[in-house]
Design brief:
This protein is α+β, with helices and mostly antiparallel strands. The protein contains 6 helices and 13 strands. The chain folds into 2 domains: 93 residues, Alpha-Beta Plaits, CATH 3.30.70; 137 residues, 2-Layer Sandwich (Alpha-Beta Plaits), CATH 3.30.70. 29% of the residues are buried.
Length: 237
């Protein structure tokens, strides 16, 4: 497995078009794999996420089975005249060293949804996004054990000034995404994405490895589901 980091040049029209369309970004990500026949297999799948920072910085992260070539992306949305348009590292050694009890900072952009009946007597349920940060946090906490980790509890005596609970978890950057799959489609796809930052403890290394290469939740083709880890000391809020 490979982990790739690509800095988008947000001053370019090509980058702005990609950032405004999950459909276009997904196509651009997959175009980096000449032999790729499917975004998913039993050994992992192509996952991607865009992190937007201060001063118009935007980074594209990709997890994949094969090493990508993003020359086309540099020409479209990067800095073609500068060296090092993207960084790709072998992800497998990191995945293999995950150990139960390890604590890591994490970031996940996901599509937290639930199924509801919108009227009395309705037999079928409708997939609906969670709107509040409380329910979005609960969505993640309900899945943590099956995903191989546990979100760390705050230290005793922490005043919890924001009332977000007892976990080291921040829910932010909620975005409503709406787009058409194909030109001319009358109906559009809409989904809600939100970003989770926090610290986790590894409870089941093999299951967490699967989460990191297969993703968590729905809408994986549209920039949701990719969780990345960083040294625990980097977590702050």
């Amino acid at each position: 497995m490979y982990l790739t980091r690509f800095r988008l040049n947000t001053a370019r029209m090509g980058a702005r078009k990609l950032l405004s369309s999950p459909q276009r970004m997904h196509a651009a990500v997959l175009a980096g794999f000449p032999e790729l026949t499917s975004a998913s297999s039993g050994e992992g799948r192509v996952l991607w996420r865009v992190d937007r920072g201060a001063k118009a910085k935007a980074f594209l992260y990709v997890v994949s089975q094969e090493r990508p070539d993003y020359t086309h992306l540099v020409e479209q949305a990067g800095w073609p005249t500068l060296e090092g348009g993207w960084e790709t590292s072998d992800y497998t050694p990191f995945l293999e060293k995950l150990t139960a009890g390890d604590v890591w900072a994490f970031r996940l952009t996901a599509n937290p949804v639930h199924k509801v009946r919108t009227c009395d007597g309705q037999e079928d349920t409708k997939t609906t996004p969670h709107i509040t940060q409380h329910h979005q946090a609960e969505w993640l906490l309900q899945r943590q054990e099956k995903a191989g980790f546990r979100v760390v509890r705050k230290a005793a005596g922490d005043p919890h000034p924001d009332g977000e609970g007892e976990r080291e978890l921040l829910v932010h950057d909620q975005r409503r995404l709406e787009f058409r799959k194909k030109r001319g489609d009358k109906s559009s796809v809409s989904l809600s994405a939100v970003t989770f930052d926090g610290r986790l403890e590894v409870t089941d290394p093999e299951t967490l490895r699967r989460t990191l290469i297969h993703g968590l939740g729905r809408a994986k083709a549209y920039g949701c589901g990719l969780m990345t880890l960083a040294p625990s000391e980097s977590w702050s809020r």
